[in-house]
Inverse folding.
């Protein structure tokens, strides 16, 4: 064999071996034992020095064909409590539960609720709390922020990564995963479906969100998708995702649980969560019809339930693993 050719092949082989070891060294490998537990992974781009704690529950009869559900907590970031709400359903339906917890000290309102699409959010002025209520009044003319166009820093990338890490740990053959998020988690998940349509997520249940980002290219984020890079082509992909607006019938004007943002633009969607979720669904459907595209999003109103993540989780388990 030609000496130069042999040298070249040797160099390529060494480079490939070194690259393979580098990939192995940087991959995040974790252990998932039967029952309740947690594992830690590093944050995504822009949060490399931060830690995401993922609380899990592995049912005793889990197999490689068992489904995987990711549960996104509300503003309390209490992944352990949200995980616990799914233990009974996990054993009954043989589903692996993953509930990532994002520490508030590392992931602000802008990073968590709004997915990282804005930065330098200044809420030191223009925000007041209405006495004897759950309402947070925001003056949009005073509160300042700037768009974050670096999509690699958006929180949505974490979810597929967490799924793949857990999938490897339990040797799952699943190619997709389901999602449930309540309150702030509901905000994150409807934005996830809207803005990140190429994810590996299957069913996405966005429960009792307080405010919404409409598929409106004329309105600025966080109430629309103007200047986010989202266009009509990507919206068509988003509308094909199996997003379910999962709303509590009693999460209405009489509900005092959880913080509710009030502002001039948010109030165009309605003045309580049930009204806003219904408005978002109808406006999104109208946009899909205008684009003459498939609309897979659904609206489910759960009777007799308000802003209660445990009761909504119980209803979600029936919806996901008994009705579908």
């Amino acid at each position: 064999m030609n000496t130069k050719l042999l040298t070249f092949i040797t160099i390529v082989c060494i480079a490939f071996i070194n690259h393979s070891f580098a990939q192995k060294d940087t991959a995040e490998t974790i252990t998932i034992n039967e029952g309740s537990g947690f594992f830690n992974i590093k944050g995504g781009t822009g949060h490399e020095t931060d830690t995401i704690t993922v609380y899990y529950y592995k049912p005793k009869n889990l197999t490689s064909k068992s489904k995987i559900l990711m549960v996104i907590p509300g503003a309390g970031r209490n992944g352990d409590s949200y995980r616990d709400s799914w233990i009974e359903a996990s054993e009954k339906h043989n589903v692996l539960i993953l509930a990532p917890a994002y520490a508030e000290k590392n992931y602000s309102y802008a990073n968590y609720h709004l997915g990282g699409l804005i930065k330098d959010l200044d809420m030191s002025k223009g925000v007041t709390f209405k006495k004897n209520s759950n309402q947070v009044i925001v003056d949009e003319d005073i509160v300042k922020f700037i768009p974050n166009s670096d999509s690699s820093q958006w929180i949505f990338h974490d979810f597929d990564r967490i799924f793949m890490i857990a999938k490897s740990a339990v040797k799952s053959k699943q190619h997709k995963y389901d999602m449930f998020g309540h309150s702030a988690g509901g905000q994150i998940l409807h934005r996830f479906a809207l803005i990140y349509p190429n994810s590996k997520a299957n069913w996405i249940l966005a429960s009792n969100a307080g405010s919404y980002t409409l598929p409106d290219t004329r309105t600025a984020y966080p109430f629309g998708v103007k200047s986010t890079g989202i266009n009509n082509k990507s919206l068509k992909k988003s509308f094909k995702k199996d997003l379910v607006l999962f709303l509590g019938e009693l999460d209405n004007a009489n509900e005092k649980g959880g913080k509710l943002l009030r502002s001039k633009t948010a109030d165009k969607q309605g003045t309580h969560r049930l009204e806003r979720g219904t408005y978002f669904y109808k406006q999104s459907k109208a946009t899909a019809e205008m684009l003459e595209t498939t609309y897979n999003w659904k609206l489910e109103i759960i009777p007799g339930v308000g802003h209660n993540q445990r009761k909504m989780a119980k209803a979600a388990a029936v919806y996901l693993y008994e009705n579908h």
In short: The CA atoms of residues 149 and 228 lie 7 Å apart.
